[in-house]
Specification:
The protein is α+β, with helices and mostly antiparallel strands. The protein has one domain: Gcn5-related N-acetyltransferase (GNAT) (Aminopeptidase). Helix content is 53%, strand content 19%. Strands 1-2-3-4-6-5 form a six-stranded mixed sheet, sandwiched between helices. A hairpin with a 6-residue loop joins strand 5 and strand 6. The termini are far apart.
Amino acid sequence: MRSSQIELLGSLLTETFYDDPRVTYILPDERKRRSVLSWFFTSVAIRTSRLCGEISTSANVNAAALWISPGVELTIGHAARTEALFRPFKLDRLSLARWINVNRCLETARLRQGGKHHWYLLALGAEPSVAGRATFKALMAPVLARADWDLRSCYTESFQERDLPFYEQSGFQIAGAGRIPNGGPNFWTLVRPAMTRKNRDLVVGAHDMSSSHA
């Protein structure tokens, strides 16, 4: 991924998550929110996914999915703290406290419900002109297929109740729900269970038979 594409992807995800309830809770100041989000996605989330996971994008980078690989003992909170020394802004004490509060709550839920080794869907976004279930399913498909082959589960969380049906249609199940302490928003945790070896072999066998008759 070229540097120009990183900036483009960072801008895309900044717009996607600008009004996300967790973001508006952490950063109620609209002027600061955009600069903080841009820094977070370009310097933390995208970098972490490139080094420790997978990034799927459309050809012109107007839609993307960011994943963290199974077994990577690196949290986004840790990555953010590592990069904090280089951030081009000073986060006020209350915003920083809310950020830590959200991260701690989400990490606790993920480690408890996600299983020992799982793919973590960190971010999923697209420009309004291409956003839709078909686009998002296509973005997730490569990692979901890889997870099935490796018998791994997948995990994500959502702060938008309207998005839950989409995830359920993609094989995720609601694992839990909660509210960020100290006045934070509601959230839902979702797990796509690992495929069993027997079911995987049945799928592979059916695919082989289909190919042989083609």
